[in-house]
Amino acid sequence: MKRAAAIAAALLVLAVLLVALAPHSASSVTAAAWTPTRDIDGAGARCDTATAADVALTRLGEHHVAVFVRPQADLDAVVPAGAAGYAEPTPDGFGRITLTADQRVLPCRYVWSTIAHEWTHVLQYRACGGCDLYAGGRGPHAEIVADCGSVLTGWPDYWPYLTDRANASGRDGCSSSELAEAKALRRWTR
What we know:
The protein has helices at residues 2-21, 49-60, 72-76, 111-127, 139-151, 160-169, 176-184; strands spanning 66-70, 85-88, 96-100. Helix 1 (2-21) packs across helix 7 and helix 5 (139-151) packs across helix 7 (176-184). It has seven helices and three strands. The chain has one domain (2-188). It is globular and about 35 Å long. The chain has a three-stranded mixed beta sheet with strand order 1-3-2.
């Protein structure tokens, strides 16, 4: 039993190293290269959030998630005030992502990484059959894994839950197990 666990741990480390050392694929090119209109300096350049979100999902290989762009007040009524977006399961199993239309809350340069984060939640919902990702105190872990899903894309560094964790505890970045969990969710892509 100990030998099987040691082999499994070694394989996990090898897989993480292979991913880290592999040549960068198209999905690791920065979002700035792909986003139709960018807001790199936060100066409020025009951005079509829905178009940017659709392009990001296509780059992720996802073809079945519905994306809605709504006024911030609509999001504030569902999730903590000031959230840039949220994901939810749907009866058909495809999932739905809602983003804010307020570019002061979600600048264009962060649309891609926000989509990657919310899409990882969709994959979490698919993996657990639409369960409550936040039940039993699992919410913080679900958010960290979703940020790690965004990290795996190589898109701009907007990872609010990782940043909050680093500020609170000094623990920076994703652990190898968090990255592996986020990567394993990709099998649920449709």
